[in-house]
Amino acid sequence: MKTKINYFVKNSNLNQEQILKKINISQKTWDAIIDEKYVPTLLTAHKITKALNCNHIDEVFFE
Asked: Which of 1, 18, 43, 59 has the fewest CB atoms within 10 Å, i.e. the most exposed one?
């Protein structure tokens, strides 16, 4: 699954460490999602979307 996570992280007021704490996932999982090697659960995708101040999951994740 493709993502726009890097774009939204760069434009947010949070750093990566703050986002990881907020959504409660490991660095390894985060890296796999960024590298498009792991598809997050719907709950994790929702948490990432909210942490990045986006309204819809499809703003961040797409195929």
From this structure: 43
Name the token pair of 30: 């985060």
Q: Which residue has the tokens 């434009």?
A: 11
Which tokens is 27 given? 């660095």
pLDDT tens per residue across span 2-52: 999 999 999 999 999 999 999 999 999 999 999 999 999 999 999 999 999
Q: Residue 6's domain is classified under what CATH number? A: 1.10.260
Q: Per the structure, how many domains does the chain have?
A: 1
**Domain of 40?**
2-56
7 belongs to a structural domain: yes
Per the DSSP assignment, residues forming a β-bridge with 61 are 3
The answer to whether position 35 is within a domain reads: yes
CB-CB contact of 16 with 9 (8 Å):
yes
